[in-house]
Amino acid sequence: MVEINGIAHVILSVSNWEACRGFYEKLLSFFGMTRTFDGEDMVYFVGGRTAIGIGKCAPAYEHERFIQTRPGLHHVCLRVRDEQAVRDVHDFLVSIKATIVHGPEEGTWAPGYYSVLFEDPIGTRIEVNHVPGQGLLAPGAAFNPSGDYR
Q1: Interhelix angle for 83-95 vs 17-30, to 10°?
Q2: Residue 136: CB atoms within 10 Å
Q3: How does pLDDT run across 51-95, given as a tens digit for each residue?
Q4: CB-CB neighbours of 45 under 10 Å
């Protein structure tokens, strides 16, 4: 057995490059991440033991939007240290006029689950959540998907 130590990086391919690049530059900077690469077709940010790269998609797909229920990525969820941080993310999203799917709310996914869900300019869904304590690893805790996962 090999125990993983988190996710090293996520790379998102995006259409509408200029809009997405600007969106992610603001968002990832707000998250305290540092841009470590700034290329013509890709930017890469590192922080919080995580790296996120945003790359321009192939020209054949440059006019497509993200479709959440296609095979592949469903959404990305980033964890923060407390519920206030979830609310702070929401306030930031409002300030940059992001598309918010749901504002800060409790969920049934795990005990104490609290999150905000939003979309980038092409519809890629991003969630920011807080789960207190051991979350699903706490004795007696159970995964409880609620509603339509799509």
Answers
A1: 140
A2: 13
A3: 999 999 999 999 999 999 899 999 999 999 999 999 999 999 999
A4: 24
Fold agreement (1-59, 68-150) = yes
pTM for the whole structure: 0.92
Of 70, 73, 75, 56, nearest in space to 14 by CA? 56
Whole-number Å distance between alpha carbons of 113 and 131: 5
Q: Would you list the DSSP string of 129-143?
A: EE--TTGGGSTT---
Report the CATH architecture of 1-59.
Answer: Roll (3.10)
Domain residue spans of the chain: 1-59, 68-150
CATH of the domain spanning 68-150: 3.10.180.10
3-state helix, strand, coil split of the chain in percent (to 5) is 20, 30, 45
